[in-house]
Amino acid sequence: MKASRPALLFSVLLWLLSASTLTAQSEPRLPFLEPADTFHNTRFWTCAIAGGVIYTSFSIGLYETWYKDYELTSFHTFDDWDEWRNMDKAGHLFTAAMESRLSFGGALWTGMDRRKAMWTGAAVGTLLQTTIEVMDGFSAKWGFSWADMGFNTLGVGVFVGQELLWQEQRITMKVSNTRPTYSQLPISAQNGDAISSAQQRANELYGSGFFETFLKDYNGMTIWASANISSFLGPQQQDRRFPKWLNLAVGYGADGLYGGYGNSWTDEADNTFVLPTDAFPRSNQFYLSLDIDLTRIPTQNRFLKSVLNALHWIKIPAPTLEVDTLGKMKGHWVFW
After folding, report:
1. Which residue, 115, 150, 167, sits at the end of a domain?
2. From CA 8, how far away is CA 287, in angstroms rounded?
3. CB atoms < 10 A from the CB of 1, how many?
4. Are residues 142 and 190 in the same domain?
5. Into how many domains does the chain fold?
6. Are residues 163 and 190 both part of a single domain?
7. 3-state secondary structure of 209
8. Considering Cα of 162, then 243, then 303, then 28, what sign does the dihedral take?
9. Using one digit for the tens of pLDDT, what is the confidence trace for 233-291?
10. How deeply is 43 buried, as exposed, middle or buried, from its count of CB atoms within 10 A (0-12, 13-18, 19+)?
11. Which residues pair with 289 in a beta bridge?
């Protein structure tokens, strides 16, 4: 089911990070973590070969673990707009933007010209996301989604647009996820004596381990656009002691999702369960919060700087204001 898609997409981020750093150092005088000032042929081809191997392995592994056990058909499209209250679309935007940015960083590391590195990052992000959509297009269970492709393109555009406009990434797409406490109250099947619960359904959809639920559980996931305040101030303001690492973030989340379009499901024994709408309403949440741009924290330590760059896509816990589509507003001293 497409609820599991973020696990695959986040894995791509980690592989891309490896592709941009796991390379050979051909010139001893060039520190490993320091980007080359000029085009470095060995670094470039090492990255290119490593990227090709990773992409091929990813494609084969994705097919073997995800699509192989489902019926395949001729290429087709389908409309999945508003499935999972578009949390999956927000995930596509986030993933495409981060894939492009990470690949861009790897290209800069090889000494590639900034403009060429930008288009390289955009091409890698587009390729990875399109590969998944094409595989969907041959799956009888899903199909090629133009809505997904639209948000993939938007995510790449978020990266490219900032490079063209500012030659820096002032707005970073981030993610956070705190799993809700699910109800364990028993729910009887409508056509039998079987029993289930909201927690059992959530475990079936999203898993139960920390990393699995962090990557998959839409009910706890928030996708953020985190804007660096200092970068939008004029040069005179930037010279003052305003913290250059302070961000303002807006987030998008959802709650009450126990199915793509509704909170009813049928188990393997054909028992049908329906969660009552009044007790389990489906809704979206909008957030306003502070954040930290880890890439702008001043440090001369190259290793620490690399670690901060690798973690820049994770939203930092902070005080947050929440408004949802049910008309409720509340504040959180710390939200993640």
Report:
1. 167
2. 26
3. 12
4. no
5. 2
6. no
7. coil
8. positive
9. 876 665 667 899 999 999 999 999 999 999 999 988 899 999 999 999 999 999 999 99
10. buried
11. 249, 320
